[in-house]
């Protein structure tokens, strides 16, 4: 082949490859733009309008929707509930997941069964889980209060008591969220290099020291991933709250941002305010992601 | 023989992609071909929140078979839902460009949906309807002099009591007013070791707003006057104070003792002596504790203070303003609210038939809560009254709960609620 022809053929080949790549990517890009990009843009635009969904009219109203939602104590308390819900579900579930992953990383008989058992809540329908827990929390005959009764504690009316409803939902959410976190940590643990541990053992490092000086730092990328995904999940939690404590729970004690968005949009038909609430939720998640990235993401390439 | 194949060229791939996209677009945008208005054949979409249970679906299927006999070219596609999900079904259908042809909805829903241009005028006069239905149930379907809905069934909230529990305490008649109800409630409340085992009066099993409103009406207050909220009047504050007394002052019931939607109400279990409840409690009792009915232990009483009051809701059949088949859809509205469907629809829900002809039916006579309601419809009040009611009503629960939980006084809670309502009305104007 003449040397002078090569670059031209290369360019042609590269050009063709790019076009095929674009063609193959097109369905995904169209899907993302149509189902995610446009709705997100529409949400941002509608947040500054009075959108009457039934009459089909849209009127620009500036920042009125934001003024309206932040003047609503229910929305403000839903932000607080979401933060409390996230604060307890994410770190607690992550801590339990790490411990379980360490335990299930040990070679033992029936480990696959144990892993499956821990992972099972993640793949079970949330509504089914919520219904089972509703029975467990039943004040007179439920398992939880029955067990508390054995030790002389008179259990509360978990899901109907404003002081306990959010706690009950947090317990269910922690239990449900452990499986997937454990799986990610387990995968990370199994990918860890033995040579580092061997070196540590030769240097006389104890198991505890190995855990804190090797395992935990090496788990940082996994921790960042789990943290980000969990925070997003937690801020988007809806179904378990909706089933366990309908209508925002007793005294609106379990209402969260996602439920308020739903309520504003579909119970009050106030789409503009619902879009403004969605923008606030988006802003919260964006800020939290940036903070998470700053806290845990810098040493992604710790090895 | 080996089949002939040809390599997949770029042009061919592009052509295939374009053809697929075009096909998908055409199939998505096409839909059924429009039919002539007023023509005999039609495919109607019906949205109903009252036939959602298995027995209800079976009943409606059978009733629609009868409808099809009279309208052979009309098919009806039913979308079953419950009242809690009705809003979103309606909203998404309208936004999605596929509104239902016939929609069943509640009392209080008509003005908001008429204002948005969702409902069509049925063209029936009020006097004509009042020959078929109790005038009390015709009114909610009338807006600005036009009829937009025909009633199918009614539901009420009233006082309900356990005769046996009252008799054990030496009480032989239900309370004559709300003051006496509170006093009796104190007497009938039972606590063991501080823990409530029987509430004298249960005001929490029913939807909180629908408990408050009849108490408010009984105190002489109203929801709106000249389109403005007046549910923060002194009488309304007294009504909420009465509920606060039940929970906080007299501790006749603990917040959290039960909740709306509990599988079995405390009254049925003997964990409450009296309650403010829905007339379908009779159906719940007949399913969970039929012996209470057999032994005549359940009865209703009027909530009374300044005046007697029943809360009256109901389900009405409406015609979409955007239906492509107005004649057939109107025929379906008339069928669903007619003398054949109304009594059966009411019975499967444990509710009150809207048609006058069923007022003395065997079902009404055998269901004491339903017959009590039928005999007292003159004292019934309905919620709604302003086009923004669906938004305003969502604000009641947090306001009422805030008073019941002691976070604000009844006066402050209702004032805040009225201010929110004023803002919603101003925004909607």
Q: Per DSSP, what share of the residues of chain A sits in E-state strands of 2 or more residues?
A: under 5%
CATH topology of the largest domain in chain B: D-Maltodextrin-Binding Protein, domain 2
Average pLDDT for all residues of chain B: 89
CATH architecture of the largest domain in chain B: 3-Layer(aba) Sandwich
Biggest interface, chains and residues, is:
A-B, 33 and 35 residues
Total number of distinct structural domains of chain A: 2
SS summary, helix count of chain B: 20
Shape estimate of chain B: globular
**What's the CATH architecture of the largest domain in chain A?**
Orthogonal Bundle
Total strand segments of chain A: 2
Q: Low-confidence parts of chain B lasting 5 or more residues at pLDDT below 50?
A: 1-8, 19-38
- Rounded radius of gyration of chain A (Å): 25 Å
CATH topology name of the largest domain in chain A: MetI-like fold
CATH homologous superfamily of the largest domain in chain A?
Answer: MetI-like
- SSE order of chain A, as H and E? HEEHHHHHHHHHHHH
